Amino acid sequence: MTILFVLLNVGIIIVTAYIDFSKEGRPSAPLGVNLRYLFAAAGCFLVALAAESSKFYIMIRDLNGSVSFRTAFEVAALGKYYDNITPTGAGGQPFQVYYLKKKKISTGVSAAIPLTGFFTLHMSFVILAIIVFLFGTPYLNNVADYTLAIKISGYIGILVYASIPLLIILFAVFPKAAGGIVRFAVFLLSKLKIVKNSEDTLAKALGTFTEYRDSVVAIYRKRKIFVLVVGFGLAYQILMCSLPYFVLRAFGSPLSYFSVFSMMVLIYCAITYIPTPGNSGVAEASFYALLATLNQGYLFWAMMIWRFFSYYAFLGIGGGIFLYSAIEKRRPAKQ
Asked: What is d(CA 73, CA 84) in angstroms, rounded to the nearest whole number?
């Protein structure tokens, strides 16, 4: 699986490079790049990671009583690492629960924190996406390659993205009604032969959403903490969707901030249900399709820098944390 994962990413890079560089008159290397905008893009990434770490710091400190910022940073960074190496991004929260347990934090708190972090991050993105779909259409229509396929995928994606937060809220407010929706969904999937063991699937689904509800309710009762957590989640989403604007500006793109921001929200909606690790393949293709107006020939480099900050950097930071932890463990043994 590791070999296939590496080959997938290398293959995507080769294909996108060939498509961009094979066009007549395209330069093969970036020249005259505005480094100030690249530093601004790096700043967006670092502040976004700091916001995500601060979110976990507030929750752990409030529910556990004490925590170091390093622990909160590692919870945030390793969650993103596992999100980006597992299909559909399903690995982040389970590992965060495991990591918090290793830090001697109680089982209930260890479960509540990652699940609440996941819920609030999803909710923050749904809020942004609704705003963009309501008010950002003029900015999207100014882009020549605003393809119908990506537009439709974006609308489907926002429904998928919103489904989990909505179900969690329904479980908290109307548990019986929400349970009925889940039962109907499992029944429908079993009739379509997608779900084999409907009873086990239903029990797991109801158990999962009940756990999510209990976790979110525990945080929501502390309104000030909940508002701060949602605020940090919103800051993270805004910064990650703003990052591509500075990358494109570094290469001389004429697109406005709101056009790029709206397009990035659309891209994230369109790729949310793609099962490849880190949405590899479709993320690059969507970026290329929507931002092909960058006719200076630097689209490949802009895409690579964007993917570095939105994908490869999380892999590098996660790997670095594991390496540093392994070195720390060996020091006492040597002594």
From this structure: 17
Are 36 and 308 in contact by the 8 Å Cβ rule? The answer is no
Residue type, 310: S
Q: For residue range 259-279, list pLDDT tens digits in order.
A: 888 888 887 887 776 666 655
Residues 62-100 pLDDT 10s: 877 777 888 899 999 988 888 877 766 567 788 888 888
3-state DSSP of the chain: CHHHHHHHHHHHHHHHHHHHHCCCCCCCCCCCCCHHHHHHHHHHHHHHHHHHHHHHHHHHHHHHCCCCHHHHHHHHHHHHHHHHHCHHHCCHHHHHHHHHHHCCCCHHHHHHHHHHHHHHHHHHHHHHHHHHHHHCHHHHHCCCCCCHHHHHHHHHHHHHHHHHHHHHHHHHHCHHHHHHHHHHHHHHHHHCCCCCCHHHHHHHHHHHHHHHHHHHHHHHCCHHHHHHHHHHHHHHHHHHHHHHHHHHHHCCCCCCHHHHHHHHHHHHHHHCCCCCHHHCCHHHHHHHHHCCCCCCCCHHHHHHHHHHHHHHHHHHHHHHHHHHHHHHHHHHHHC
Query: CB count, 10 Å around CB of 64?
Result: 17
Give the angle 155-156-157 at the CA atoms, nearest 5°. Answer: 90
Q: What gap in Å lies between CA 77 and CA 87, rounded to an integer? A: 18
